[in-house]
Amino acid sequence: MTINARTTLTSFVVNGDPQEVSVTGAQTLLNVLREDLHLTGTKCGCNQGICGACTVLCDGMPIRACLALAMVVDGRDILTVEGGKTDPVLSVVQQAFVETGAVQCGFCTSGMIMSATALLMRKPSPDRQEIREELSGNLCRCTGYAKILDAVALAASRLPIQESAT
Amino acid sequence: MSQVSELGASMPRLEASAKATGVARYTADLAFPNMLHGAVLMSTSAHARIKSYDVSAARALPGVRAVMTGADIPRKRFGLMIADETALAIDKVRYIGEPVAAVAAIDRETALAAAELIQVEYEDLPGVFTPDEAMMPDAAIVHETFAAYPKNFDCIADGNAISIAQVLSGDPDEAWAEADVVVEGVYETQAQYHAYMEPVAAVADVDGLGRVTVWSSTQSVFRTQICIAEALDLPRAKVRSISPYVGGGFGGKSEPGVQIIAALLARETGRAVKVVLSRQEDMMMMRSRHPARIHLKTGARRDGTILVRTGSVVMDGGAYADDSPAAMHMVLHFLRGPYRVPHLRFDGRVLYTNKLRAAAFRGVGNAQATFACESQIDELARKLSLDPIDLRLRNVLQQGDSWLGKHPIGSASIGECLQRVRSESNWDARRAALAEAPTSKSGKRRGLGVSSVVYTCAYLSTSAIVRLLDDGTVTIATGAVDIGQGSDTAIAQMCAAALRLPVDSVNIVQADTDATPFNSGTNASRITYMLGQVIAQATDDIVSQLFPHAAELLECSVEDVELVPGGRVAIKGVKERFVSFADCSRRAHFKAGGPIIGRGSYVFRVEEPDTELTINKGMMSLAAIGTYVFGAQVVETEVDEVTGKVEVVEAWSAHDVGRAVNRQAVEGQIEGGLVQGIGFALMEELVWSDGQLTNPSFMDYKIPCSLDAPENIHAIVIENPEPTHPFGVKGIGEPPVIGIAPAVGNAVEHAVNVRVRQLPITSERVLRCLLDRGS
Predict the structure, then answer these.
(1) A14 to chain B: which residues are within 8 Å by CB?
(2) Exposure of B518 by Cβ count < 10 A (0-12 exposed, 13-18 middle, 19+ buried)?
(3) Partner residue opposite B676 with nearest CB, options A34, A40, A141
């Protein structure tokens, strides 16, 4: 990197794997995931924190990877769409998206799935209106959202019912 | 034709799991050893002569490997209908955002920094920013050399006009005398941004043999190949175009994005170059739906029978033609609506302006025409005190009718579609109840509105090659790009059905100009219809080669064998006496005849319009388009009389799809199109100030989110098998977007008694109408 060449060593866990990456001050988590760790499942739709395509979970909370500076996630636990093998909720959500036809072009899908996963981790049995509201920060241009809402409801029905964490 | 009984099942898309787990690779996800990154410098002037460039500072920046301007590229123009574009501006810039220079560097940050260092000296020219300005007698001319540009249709134009055309049928001037009622209005539609979630991207590489390979987000690998070849002055064979997964297109990726720029940089540096636009760059540089102003007038008898309709449309084409002529011609073609209109005349004009180019967008031209047409039908119903669906049913096309100039329409199911939305939405009771309901305490009223929908789904040509592998599975190559709508799965399902194979025995070849045969592109709702035609041919070809092997192995005559499910050929009526595809194919591969390959080639062509009945002036050929698709849409809206805000709370969308190949995917098209239609109806608009786009971000340009979509969308799939098609299918990609805006406008009028003739129907516009109306 020729510009902003000063780097800092940052350590965090991605999908269960400890990672150590030299990052520049301006480098975003999205950039580190895609360019340094080659985890390209997380997409860049607007790079302004609006479309939600880059949503990942940071210690279980959904964040926009395009707005998060990589340095800031030092010591955190990051879950991306590639982490289905390590996270049972994510994997149930992914399967539900496949079965219900909630995936069309797929470009919003990873962010949408991560937001849905965050919702179901916090609240395993949301009603349809809660799902609509929770996913309103993730834009989709293909599906009209109907089958995405169906997918989240299906995933919720398959998850063990437990007390909400909050 | 073999059994097609497996068609119609809902099945997950072939690639759904790859997309849901992040494995699916899109263009921006690709990387090559030693790859460079590109950046594009956009014009800051809306209309100017380029006096000079100074690229020295950019070239001197460490890490920069190439800087190119219009002075460094072939002076070769390309374009779908009119060859008026270059990959980088040459001599002149014509809109703010137009690519002026490009940089390749070791990373994207360096490339962007270098692009900022390029100095371009402009001599500003007066600009034209609206069609009205473009039509002024003393208007600045956007393309002085227009007359010399190659064109692929019988183009009539003058001044800043890209195309001027007319459709005339019957004797409209005489017919007005017989009309008891006349309704007339001006309807305006806006520039809508495609907003595919994946911004435009391309990776280009060179191979040392003078060939350039481009991976890109495109709706047509062949259009991409053609445009690169024309712009770079290369033979087609020196350009290979491939599409990885594509994150949506909706018309916006039919023509080139940054592929040519990536190819130029790759050839200049001898290295792979990736160019990915930011969202802001994509919005400023690429395309929008054509803004249109349509003046429409309809005359009818007192009983509602339509006699005559005339109109004129003026469209804003932006700085380059792209497919503007076709978009305008589609307005003229569809302005009559799916009704019997004995006398009509429509005049159209699309103009260059110094703004972003306008281009095909889901329902090209038709969405604009239908907003005018279907709004006006409701205005006529109101004037005649007729129910809007009753009035439509009185006039709809019937089986045996044709479109303009005897253009065949296939199954004329518009009446059935209207009846279905009427019954499914409980139209009569619901409409009456809503009309009588008091305004809510918070000032909200609901209304119900309807629109008819008509479109076509067959267009141009396509081809397929199906290969039977030695283990009895098949590989199909078609050149069709699945941009997210699900065509790969539909192709696999049709191929599997024709050969009575499980779908997972069918392998789809990624669209690649080296590996897959010609397909003109994923547009015009054409893929499922067109591919079905060639899949039927290619699989019949396979079967005709397969049966002699089976007969030899079964020791019977060819006439005595038939396909049975599961990749088997059996003796007719004795299904336990069979051989597998693998048995036959191994025989073909290693003993007799050689590997089995099936081929299909198809071009859609009907008769040119009968000029005794209809005169088309300045139009592209309509003989390449056809097979009509009908639908009807109803929406229930809630209008806040305090704020003017409109919400769509429930929607019914009925479409005659001929035959659903994959019901879940058809529903997905209907639901998704409908919500895009809501964006068009209520919220989306690109806004310019003197040539400067003022809202190039998702912060300021809003598309519908999950809360803007209706809580209930009823996707109603009607199946009247299409008689011209081996599988009976029709395309459904575009129709669901088309009727929503007028249905919403009609529902708003039903709710609060105001007619909004300008899109989008924003709170401000509704409120202004409400204030004008009084209480």
Answers:
(1) none
(2) middle
(3) A141
